[in-house]
């Protein structure tokens, strides 16, 4: 009985080798700046409430709260990149 010809499978190109990249460590200044922004934002808001709006910047008025929260949020956003 005759044998059928075997089909050749097309050769696949070799998959590129992936090197396991180790995430880089953060610079030395990263952690102090991150915590510093969070604390500075908190102190900004506390100062605004304790002085009844006279400090930290009287011209900002109630926007001092937004400045304080903005500083704190920048610190919290930095935590997403902390390694």
From TrEMBL:
Quick one: a GO biological-process term for this protein? Answer: cell division
Question: Annotated region Disordered: where?
Answer: 1-22
Kindly indicate whether the keyword Transcription belongs to this entry. no
Protein's cellular compartments: Cell membrane
Q: Name one Pfam family in it.
A: CrgA
Sorted keywords for this record are:
Cell cycle, Cell division, Cell membrane, Membrane, Transmembrane, Transmembrane helix
Biased composition regions of type Basic residues, renumbered to the chain: 1-11
Known function: Involved in cell division.
Entry protein name: Cell division protein CrgA
Species this chain originates from: Arthrobacter jinronghuae
């Amino acid at each position: 009985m005759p044998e059928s010809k075997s089909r050749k499978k097309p050769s696949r190109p070799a998959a590129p080798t992936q090197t396991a990249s180790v995430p880089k460590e953060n610079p030395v200044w990263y952690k102090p700046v991150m915590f510093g922004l969070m604390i500075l934002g908190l102190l900004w808001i506390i100062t605004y409430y304790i002085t009844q709006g006279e400090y930290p910047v009287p011209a900002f008025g109630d926007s001092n709260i937004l400045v304080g929260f903005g500083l704190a949020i920048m610190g919290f956003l930095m935590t997403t990149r902390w390694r």
